[in-house]
């Protein structure tokens, strides 16, 4: 593993009964999150191994975010963070005179994971242990 690759830790979580089915042996896996990191937190962490200060990194992030919003709102697909982001419209369009109706249609943000993260997660699933803790009734 290269020195700049992040350490992938084991994923810990609880098996919780799936109440949407009638089966007693049907569970979902709720991940136990280790931390909640804001952009400011990430900039501070990244600055320890960077030639840039946390403030400079956050400023660059804010500039990128502002430009990403402009591009997204102009109907561009934008690669930002862990996802490819694009706009979509939900709701029905029925009939020969179909048009956008704000009472039944809305603009949504669609995010799909970038391929490199999908591949990383596949490899982690094959090599790392997933620790399960079964929740007691």
Order of strands, widest sheet? 2-1-6
The largest sheet is:
3 strands, mixed
- Judged by helices, strands and strand pairing, the structural class is alpha+beta
Q: Which outline best applies?
A: flat
Terminal residue distance: 41 Å
Count of helical stretches: 3
Report the order of strands and helices: EEHHEEEHE
Strand content: 25-35%
Mean pLDDT level: 84
Could you explain the architecture of this structure?
Helices cover 31% and strands 26% of the residues. The protein is flat, with a radius of gyration of 21 Å. The model has no long low-confidence stretch (mean pLDDT 84). A hairpin with a 2-residue loop joins strand 3 (78-80) and strand 4 (83-90). Helix 1 (39-47) crosses helix 2. Strands 2-1-6 form a 3-stranded mixed sheet, with no helix packed on it. The protein is an alpha+beta fold and 137 residues long.
